[in-house]
Design goal:
Distance between the termini of chain A: 36 Å
Structural class of chain A: alpha/beta
Number of domains of chain A: 4
Keywords (chains A, B): Magnesium, Metal-binding, Molybdenum, Molybdenum cofactor biosynthesis, Transferase
Number of strands of chain A: 29
Protein name (chains A, B): Molybdopterin molybdenumtransferase
Oligomer: homodimer
Helix content of chain A: 10-25%
Radius of gyration of chain A: 33 Å
Catalytic activity (chains A, B): adenylyl-molybdopterin + molybdate = Mo-molybdopterin + AMP + H(+)
Family (chains A, B): Belongs to the MoeA family.
Strand content of chain A: 25-35%
Pfam families (chains A, B): MoCF_biosynth, MoeA_C, MoeA_N
Low-confidence stretches of chain A: 1-10
C-alpha cells in the first residue's frame, strides 16, 4: 500500500536487498503460456513435454549420392572387375513412389532420398563410373545439364555391405519419445528439432511486455535544446535497452512531468500493453516526488489487492525503491530511483530477475564471481548499506571505475561489473577478495 | 566461380577450416555506417568518437531533498539552538530561474534542482523541521497535499560545510571529453551515457539483414502433412533463429524446390533485402544439387567479380560448402550443406563470424575452452578431417551426446558445446583434454 505524504512507520525501516528481492520474486508469477509460432518462441520457455509424433528419419534413406543396389550384385566388385548393373532411373529426395530394384539393377539415388524397395545398400557415386563408362567419377553431373547416368548401365568398382550409407528410419528419434521436456529454453537447435518433427507451433511463455517511463519536470528528450535547470532523459533509454537485453519486449514511454494526475493517467493508459511497468524517479523524500502520490490509486480504487509500497533499502546506490501492483489486473510495477546509476543498478538487481521470472526462466540472476580487488586506494562504504560500485573485470581481477556518486554515468559506461561491498564492511583494501556481479 | 557439372580440378582439393574461414572473413566487409536512432543502435558498433558537448551535470545541483542555504547561517546550529531561516520558496528539478538566496534565507530544494544563486550548501530535510515547527522530520510532505514548508521559517539542526550535498557542474564528465570511442559496442550503459549528453542519434553499423532459404524438393513446412519420401524443413528455422541470435535481422524465405530456375529467381528476388544470403542443401555431388548450377549466374551475368565457389572442406560434418557473392551488388552468400547437423555446425563456424564481421564487431567467434573428455568409449574420427562432435559442457568436463551422424538432430538439441577432434587425431580416449566450442 502506498504512503503518500509522511512515510508511515511500517515502511520506514530499512529493508535488506534480499527482503526486497524476495518480495518482488514471490509476487511476480510467470506469464500464462500461449501458443507461439515457432520462430516467435525463440528464447522462450516451453511449458509442454513435446513428444515425437513420427520417427526421424521417417523412412530409410541414403546418406550419399550414389546407386541403390542389392548386396549380392556388387559382392566382389573391383576396379579390374566391376559389377555392371542396369540403371532404372533416379530416386531424388522427395520422390513419392520410388523404383523397385531387382537383381542386376540399380537406381541412381540422391542424399536423403528413400531407399527404394528391393535395394539393400548404397554405393557412393565416387565408387562407380557414374554411368558414363569412363572410369571412376568424382560426382554426378547436374541432371539438367547432363541427363546421362540415370539410365543405361553403371559400373561399380567396390562391394558394399548391407545397409551401407543408409540412415535407418528412427535412428535419430523414434515416434513416442520425448523430444523436449517442459522448461526447456528454445534456442536454435531446439527450434531445429521442433521443426524437424513437424511442430510449427508450441506452447510456451511469451516475452513479457515492459513499459518504461521516467519522471521529472527537468527531463528533456535527447536531441532537443536544454534550457536552464534541465537535463536529458537517459533513464528511459537505458531501462528500455536493459529490458530488451533481459528478454522483454520493451516500450519506452519517455519522460513524464512531476504531476501526479499526468503520471497517473499515463500509467492507466499504458496498463493495456504492460506485463510489467518500470518507472524511474520520484520515489525519494522530496515535495515533488509524485510517483508515491500518483501510485496510491491507479485504476479502480475499489479493486482490492493492488497498491505500491515505497521503502528504503540498505543499499547504495538505490536506497529508495517502490514495488507493488497497479490497475484492476494487478500489473506489477517497480518504481526505481531517478539517479542514472541508482536506476541502472536497481534494474540489474530487481527488474532483470523480475522480467526473467515472468518468462518462466530458472536462471534469473546475473552470474557472480569472486575477484581480487585492484584499486589505487581502499574502497570505503557506509556502514549498514550494501554498496554496488562500478568496475571492470578481467582474469580474476576487478578494478573500480569512477567513484560512488550515483550521478556518475560516464564511469558506468566503462564498467562491465558491479563490485559488492557487504553491509558490515566499511573499507576494502586493494588485493582483498570481493564479490563481483558480471554485467557482460 | 561456380563449377556446374563436373568439379573443376581447382576446387577439388580439400580446404582446411581455416582456409575457408579466411576466404569468408577477408571477402566480407563491415556494413557501411548509417545514422541510427539511439534505441535502434542497441548491440551495434559505434563508428564515431563521441565527444561530450556539455558538461555533466550541466549545472551545480543538489544531491538531496532539503534546503539551500549560506554556510555562515547554519554554522553552530544544533537541536538545542537551531538556525532559523526564512524560506523563500521551492526550487524544483527543472526550475528555470531559481530564487536568489540572501543572508538569513533558505530555499527548499529538490534532488537534481539547480543550486540557487547565493546559496553555498544544502542541508538535507532530515536535518531540519521541514518548516513545520514540530522538530526533525523524515521527509517532505507532497507539495500538492501539504503546501507548508515552502514558505514561512525552517529550523536547521546541524551545520553544513560549503558545497555539502552539491554535485558540481562537470563532476561526471566535462564538455570536450571523449564520451565513447569509435568501436564501442552499445549496450544499455553506453546508451544511457549517449542519452545523458543529448545524443538522440549516433553513427553506427546497422544490424545485417540475412536472408535464409533451404533447398530440397523433399521439404515440407512444419504443421503440414508429410507424404512419402518427404521430411520437414528444419534448416530454415534453425538458421533464421541462429542468425538472430548472432545479432542479425533475419528473413526466413523457407524451402525452395530443387529447380535451378526457381532457386535463381528466388535469390534474385531476395537480393534487395539481403546483406548476406544463407542457403542450405544442394551443394554436394548429386544430380539434383541445383544450388551449384543456379548460383553460377545470379543477377547480371556481365557484372564481373561475382560468383559462388563450391569446395570440399577437411571437416566432418560439413564437408561440402559454397561461398562467394551474388548479384550486381556482390551480396555475400554462404551455401551450407543440407543435413541439419552439418548446416548448424557450418553456421556456427562460418556464418556467425560472417554476421559479426558485417556488424563490425571485433569478437566474431564463439568462445572456446579446454575440457576433459568424459566418454563411455573412445571418440573415433576420420583421418584428415576435423571433426565437430556435439557435447554437453560443465565444470571443465565435456560429455558427447549422440553419435557423429549428421542427421542426428535430437542429440543436437541436447548439446551446448562442440567437441573438436583435430585432423591428425583418429581416436580420443576418455579423460583426454580436448578443445571445446561453447555454444551457450
Amino acid at each position: 500500500m502506498s504512503s503518500a505524504g509522511h512515510d508511515s512507520p511500517a515502511t520506514d525501516r530499512l529493508w535488506s536487498v534480499e527482503e526486497h528481492l524476495e518480495d518482488v520474486l514471490t509476487t511476480i508469477r510467470p506469464l500464462e503460456p500461449i501458443e507461439l509460432q515457432l520462430l516467435d518462441a525463440q528464447g522462450c520457455v516451453l511449458v509442454e513435454d513435446v513428444m515425437v509424433p513420427l520417427s526421424l528419419p521417417p523412412f530409410d534413406n541414403s546418406s550419399m549420392d550414389g546407386y541403390a543396389v542389392r548386396v549380392a550384385d556388387v559382392a566382389g566388385a573391383s576396379e579390374e572387375f566391376p559389377a555392371v548393373l542396369d540403371v532404372l532411373g533416379d530416386v531424388a529426395a522427395g520422390a513419392a513412389d520410388p523404383l523397385q530394384v531387382g537383381p542386376g539393377q540399380a537406381a541412381r539415388i540422391m542424399t536423403g532420398a528413400p531407399l527404394p524397395p528391393g535395394a539393400e545398400t548404397v554405393v557412393p557415386v565416387e565408387w562407380t563410373d557414374g554411368g558414363l563408362g569412363e572410369g571412376p567419377v568424382r560426382g554426378m553431373p547436374a541432371r539438367s545439364l547432363a541427363p546421362q547416368g540415370a539410365t543405361g548401365q553403371v559400373r561399380v568398382y567396390r562391394p558394399a555391405p548391407a545397409r551401407a550409407h543408409v540412415r535407418d528410419k528412427g535412428s535419430d528419434v523414434r515416434a513416442g519419445a520425448l523430444a523436449l521436456k517442459a522448461g526447456t529454453v528454445l534456442g536454435p537447435p531446439q527450434i531445429a528439432l521442433l521443426a524437424a518433427i513437424g511442430r510449427g507451433r508450441v506452447t510456451g511463455r511469451p516475452r513479457p511486455r515492459v513499459v518504461v517511463l521516467s519522471t521529472g519536470s527537468e527531463l528533456v528528450q535527447p536531441g532537443e535544446q536544454l534550457e536552464g535547470g534541465q537535463i536529458y532523459d537517459s533513464n528511459s533509454f537505458a531501462l528500455t535497452a536493459a529490458a530488451r537485453d533481459a528478454g522483454a519486449i520493451a516500450y519506452r514511454v519517455g519522460a513524464v512531468a512531476d504531476d501526479a494526475d499526468t503520471l497517473r493517467s499515463t500509467i492507466e493508459d499504458q496498463l493495456v500493453r504492460a506485463d510489467l511497468m518500470v518507472t524511474s524517479g520520484g520515489v525519494s523524500v522530496g515535495a515533488y516526488d509524485v510517483v508515491k502520490e500518483a501510485l496510491s490509486h491507479v485504476g479502480d480504487e475499489d479493486e482490492p489487492g493492488g497498491g505500491v509500497e515505497f521503502r528504503k533499502l540498505a543499499m547504495q546506490p538505490g536506497k529508495p525503491q517502490g514495488f507493488g501492483t497497479v490497475g484492476p489486473d494487478h500489473i506489477p510495477l517497480l518504481a526505481l530511483p531517478g539517479n542514472p546509476v541508482s536506476s541502472y543498478v536497481s534494474f540489474e538487481l530487481f527488474v532483470r530477475p523480475a522480467i526473467r521470472t515472468l518468462m518462466g526462466l530458472q536462471d534469473v540472476h546475473r552470474p557472480t564471481t569472486r575477484a581480487r580487488l585492484a584499486a589505487d586506494e581502499p574502497l570505503t562504504s557506509p556502514k549498514g548499506r550494501r554498496q554496488f560500485l562500478r568496475g571492470t573485470y578481467a582474469d580474476g581481477e576487478v578494478r573500480p571505475v569512477g567513484g560512488s556518486g550515483s550521478h556518475l554515468i560516464a564511469a558506468l559506461a566503462q564498467a562491465d561489473a558491479l563490485i559488492v561491498v557487504p553491509e558490515d564492511t566499511e573499507s576494502v583494501a586493494s588485493g582483498a577478495e570481493v564479490e563481483v556481479i558480471l554485467l557482460g
